[in-house]
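Contributing new complexes? Match this layout with 4'-deoxy-4'-aminopyridoxal-5'-phosphate.
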Amino acid sequence: MSVMEMSHRSSEFEQIIGEAERDLRELLKIPNNYRVLFLQGGASLQFTMVAKSFLGEGRSADYVVTGAWGKKAVESAQIEGKVRIPFDDKAAGYRTAPAFESLDLDPQAAYIHFTSNETIQGVEFASDPDTDAPLFCDMSSDILSRPVDVYRYSGIYAGSQKNMGPAGVTVAILSDEALERVAGNLPPMLDYRIHAKNGSLYNTPCTWAIYVTGLVYKHLLKLGGIEAAAAGAKQKSEQLYAAVDGSGGFYKGHTEPDSRSRMNVVFTLPNSELTSKFVAQAEAEGLSGLAGHRSVGGIRASIYNAFPVKGCEALATFMKDFQAKN
Ligand code: PMP
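Output block (do not edit by hand):
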């Protein structure tokens, strides 16, 4: 029987989900007083679950908005309660990940939420912020690409589909202390406590996605764990940013240099004709998926953990050739 046929309550599947959790704990050095949950509904449902769980009556939460996904998180949270936005870089086109020390954060905030890597604009925080209020982070597009001090967070969540495996499973990592603060009466499927109590098997989980995600954890451990992933991310992204910076202004990075994403390298060309030509010619050379998100334009090279160094070398070479010819 394959994993698609066996019962999710079989001892075989319990072993699969147990090993996935154990390997993720090892990769991220997750302390024992944190629960690991394998959920469904994508990171988008986490926008709602975090707010429903922790944004109690009369409380307010601070959302640091560095791009499109942080904004979506705000929109979901506003349905549940009061949201303050101490930072929103929209007017500047989302180019900066601010130092938390520079922000006017609410010391009474129920929690602070941010997005460690903004996938569309390519804005990434280089390190874990230090805050007094409980900290929640959407790590969907850079989880497992650098070491994280889990202790600084009350909760971390991430869809699997960028750095961990196929779409369908969303990982949530919550401190026991946070779980104790979850609001009273929630629909069972939106209640972290119920998922925790049932070892992520309250209802039928996405068994196949969990199985493959577990294989990716094993693969990452074999490659040398997060340190190896971080070294790869640095090497790959630096290659592309060097091609941008060395172009004398032909290519322009979208993001401020100290906020540059190691996962999504976003840059523009002098005009839209050249941008279209770049995308088409790159595609013809096997470099596909480079058109930027429609809200930003330009080029976006998404280079998640699984993307090979050779692919970045090929793109950097293509960029130089394209510039020379144009
Ligand atoms: N947050 C970030 C940073 C993302 O990149 C994405 C998906 N691209 C989401 C949230 C939404 O995730 P999902 O589609 O799994 O709901």
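Reviewers usually confirm one structural detail per submission. For this one: The two ends are 56 Å apart (CA to CA).
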